[in-house]
Amino acid sequence: MTVAFPENIFLVGLMGAGKSTVGRILARRLSKRFVDTDHEIEKRNGVTIPVIFEIEGEEGFRRREQELLADLAQEQGLVLSTGGGIVLKSENREVLRNHGFVVYLNARPELLADRTKHDRSRPLLNVEDPLTRLRELHAVRDPLYREVAHAVVETGRGAPQQVVQAILAEISLIDR
Ligand SMILES: Nc1ncnc2c1ncn2[C@@H]1O[C@H](COP(=O)(O)OP(=O)(O)OP(=O)(O)O)[C@@H](O)[C@H]1O
Ligand SMILES: O=C(O)C1=C[C@@H](O)[C@@H](O)[C@H](O)C1
Ligand SMILES: [Mg+2]
Question: Which annotated residues bind substrate (predicted)?
């Protein structure tokens, strides 16, 4: 059976999994357009994510995120790095699953805490104990990422280039 090479590739996973870093490299390798939902929300609204959280709360941010995803899913040929919480809405999970090849980038909370410790741009991690927060988020969201994913790639063992190789290997496993 011949199936088209996936037009859109969607990267999901927790903060620090490497969605933005890996997505950019992957897009270049595949000559696809790279979009990062977090950056796109900041660009469209002219304010940073922490400011959106401050003014509208997480709920306002989630609404903007959902609207953006619905828009972007109409496009073809994207590598889309998503925000870590995009899978919380079932509508988003359905859109992701039906409009592209979804890759869950997974890593242990300890590693995610280490990778995000110097960056204050993630409001959900601006707490006294980010590791405990990441463990809680991992427990809640890991099943949601797995529900939506066509492939799961562990990001704890290699550099971003190696994660890209692992994603390319998963894509080439698609029956085509
Ligand atoms: N495979 C990797 N090996 C080592 N460091 C990595 C790897 N992937 C990402 N990093 C580093 O981890 C940090 C977080 O990566 P990145 O911003 O890409 O995560 P993210 O999944 O996009 O997070 P968020 O959901 O908050 O947007 C960056 O400093 C990046 O350089
Ligand atoms: O995991 C999350 O809920 C978030 C992750 C980031 O990518 C941003 O989308 C925002 O900081 C929320
Ligand atoms: Mg990112």
Answer: 38, 62, 84, 141
Q: Which residue has the tokens 């280490």?
A: 114
- Which ligand number lies closest to the CA of residue 160? 1
Q: Which ligand is nearest to the CA of 49?
A: 2
Please give all residues whose beta carbon lies within 6 A of any atom in ligand 1, as ranges.
Answer: 13, 15-21, 38, 81, 83-84, 115, 122, 155, 158-160, 163
Q: 């290699």: which residue's tokens?
A: 158
- Looking at domain 9-172, its CATH superfamily turns out to be P-loop containing nucleotide triphosphate hydrolases (3.40.50.300)
Q: Which residue has the tokens 């790095």?
A: 81
ipTM of the complex: 0.97
Q: Where are the domains of the chain?
A: 9-172
Could you state, in chain order, the average pLDDT of each consecutive group of 10 residues for the chain (176 residues)?
69 97 97 97 96 96 98 96 98 97 98 94 94 98 98 95 96 68
